[in-house]
Design the sequence.
């Protein structure tokens, strides 16, 4: 079979090493992580009854084309289907219908290309987190008859017998000689296990055009003991907290001012994450971020651990009833240029970005110490925080 590819129709992949970090799920809930990674020294994926030979056939043609971007996949598969329609219609129906995922080919070919590029894969399994590399040939192997019998004997009671065919790629490097305990791993990485993008998909890159998880990638590099450039500013530093840690930071700042914060995270509340009540008997001011809570008063907070713009702020506040007697503060790492803070002040809503938040932290030794300990793993954090902590001490 020969396909006529026109150079320029597609875009070649970036060579940036930050594109070589991925999460990989090994069966539902990663229940077979230990079986595959430790006992077998392989990964095992399913995607219906498509065989390893059929996957490799498509991948070799895909690799020969030199086009690996996800956005190019539909165009490639359409062309491939024209050239090999009888075979490919059956394969595509199996991988899409039985796997229940329209983007299944993207994930299968992504795993293979990630392996070929020497990428690092992360698998979450309860208290265990595995970080590993795969055979750079990037090709799947089938289980031999004896291996398949062993697989069913050991796993049918765990996952129930399934008629899908497991396909495998050898693991060449298993960092730490096995799993990291979740307590050893920065939260910004371990918390991805509950992120829907990574929890639901068999394969997902840490770095996408929509959501670049730089801090999670830095956490992987920290565990791999790779040299990294230091963080250079306060907003970059705060980005290395995970969203729950960021909420906790704000809670600690409020508590240090003797404000009562009944819950340190919002959970399933839609428009409010934190409530701060003033039982001190006097007005409380948090300088320099201009939070003022009158005697016996309260204020509310909504916290977003990211950069947000006007449209998202308006959407967040849409469901909120205006009550100017209760000030509402929206805390985010950054606000983009579309945001005019004064327009929201008129509605009793006040914006606090990462720079303002960090200015408030500077005057609070206990908060600084908490931040220093929480981000001890981040290269350059000590250089930013130690002088301030020492000065306060």
Sequence:
């Amino acid at each position: 079979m020969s396909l006529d590819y026109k150079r320029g129709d597609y875009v070649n992949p970036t060579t940036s090493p930050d594109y070589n970090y991925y999460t990989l799920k090994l069966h539902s809930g990663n229940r077979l992580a230990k079986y595959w990674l430790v006992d077998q020294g392989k990964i095992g994926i399913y995607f219906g009854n498509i065989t390893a030979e059929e996957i490799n056939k498509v991948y070799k043609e895909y690799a020969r084309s030199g086009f690996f971007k996800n956005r190019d996949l539909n165009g490639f598969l359409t062309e491939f289907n024209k050239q090999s329609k009888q075979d490919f219609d059956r394969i595509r129906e199996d991988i899409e219908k039985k796997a229940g995922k329209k983007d299944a080919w993207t994930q299968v070919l992504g795993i293979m290309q990630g392996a070929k590029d020497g990428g690092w894969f992360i698998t979450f399994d309860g208290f265990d987190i595995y970080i590993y590399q795969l055979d750079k040939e990037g090709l799947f192997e089938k289980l031999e008859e004896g291996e398949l019998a062993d697989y069913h004997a050991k796993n049918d009671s765990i996952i129930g017998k399934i008629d899908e065919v497991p396909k495998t790629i050898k693991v060449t490097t298993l960092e730490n000689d096995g799993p990291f305990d979740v307590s050893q791993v920065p939260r910004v990485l371990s918390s991805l296990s509950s992120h829907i993008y990574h929890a639901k998909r068999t394969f997902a890159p840490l770095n996408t055009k929509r959501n670049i998880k730089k801090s999670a990638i830095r956490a992987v590099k920290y565990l791999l003991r790779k040299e990294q450039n230091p963080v250079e500013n306060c907003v970059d530093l705060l980005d290395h907290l995970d969203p729950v840690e960021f909420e906790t930071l704000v809670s600690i700042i409020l508590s240090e001012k003797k404000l009562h914060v009944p819950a340190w995270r919002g959970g399933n509340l839609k428009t409010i994450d934190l409530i701060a009540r003033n039982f001190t008997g006097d007005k409380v001011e948090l300088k320099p971020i201009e939070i003022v809570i009158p005697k016996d008063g309260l204020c509310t907070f909504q916290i977003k651990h990211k950069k947000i713009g006007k449209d998202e702020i308006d959407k967040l506040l849409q469901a909120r009833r205006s009550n100017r007697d209760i000030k509402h503060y929206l805390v985010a790492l950054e606000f983009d240029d579309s945001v005019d803070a004064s327009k929201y002040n008129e509605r009793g809503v006040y914006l606090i970005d990462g720079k303002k938040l960090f200015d408030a932290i500077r005057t609070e030794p206990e908060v600084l110490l908490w931040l220093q300990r929480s981000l001890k793993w981040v290269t350059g954090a000590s250089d930013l925080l130690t002088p301030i902590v020492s000065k306060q001490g």
Summary: The chain has a mean pLDDT of 83. The longest strand covers residues 298-308.
